[in-house]
Amino acid sequence: MWLPLAFLSAALLGCYDIFKKRSVRDNAVIPVLFLNTLFSSLIFLPFLILSRTGVISPETLVYVAPTDARTQGFIFIKSAIVLASWFFGYIGMKHLPLSLVGPMQATRPVLVLVGAIFFFGESLSLLQWLGVSTAAVSLFLLSRSGRDEGIQFAHNRWVYAVGAAILFGALSGLYDKFLMAPGKGLGLDRMAVQTCFNFYQALLMGLMCLILWLPHRQSQPFRWTWSILGISVFLSLADFAYLYALSVEGALISVVSMVRRGSVLVSFAFAALVLKEKNLRAKAFDLGLILLSMVLLWAGSAR
Known about the structure:
There is one protein chain. Helix 2 runs antiparallel to helix 8. The chain has one domain. The longest helix is centred in the first third of the chain and has 27 residues, at 69-95. By secondary structure, the chain is mainly alpha-helical. It has helices at 2-24, 29-52, 69-95, 98-105, 108-120, 126-147, 157-180, 190-213, 227-247, 253-260, 264-273, 280-302. It is globular. Helix content is 75%, strand content 0%.
């Protein structure tokens, strides 16, 4: 059951990337990110209230289980890690083509798999090593595709921002495995994690808005767009399916992470058909290599 949920999460993440790109274009990043976290919190607030008042029973999918201070601490750490990934990712996406950012982010499962070797004792098979090598080659080719558009990977701060987002995102995936996995991890309630995570995100982003954006709002103007609400809706649905998948006994974080990166297919199609971005033929080949690496890693994990 966890694998179909991972595919569903990937499709929803692709839609999330589209709304994210539309929202940050010619817009201040920090207030967009704050409103995203605020709306996500409001989406889950009714489930928390209904769970505490006994309207929703513990047997339902949307029941939010009670948590103690220790659990809240673990969830807060997750919020900080994800917030760092989002912050750098939003900044990079604002200044780089979506058809370039999407394939770059699709290399994240490689880092997750390498992290799983060190932290969870997993070992790489021959197919997995081929997948890692293919992903490395695809990232090199992406740098060449970006250079054709005047984007120098080695000297571009927006590329570094996306790279930082990828690193924090991979760390987040490994930490999610630790939080959600029954037996090998803490086995936390998925709705409690997602609900409290959203509340902490909104709190942290509110502070960032007050400190980093509000004093500079004249030079970093913000405009409202309904696509910001779309970010929250699709991200909430994608994370719900993702955390549900990880909570299932036997779910593999390496495979779930790889499948979720399939969201790049949705965002890449949008970049080609709607945004009419440049140099798509070369990027499509690079994307094909990344997808091949995902297939090899998946096949190696399934053996």
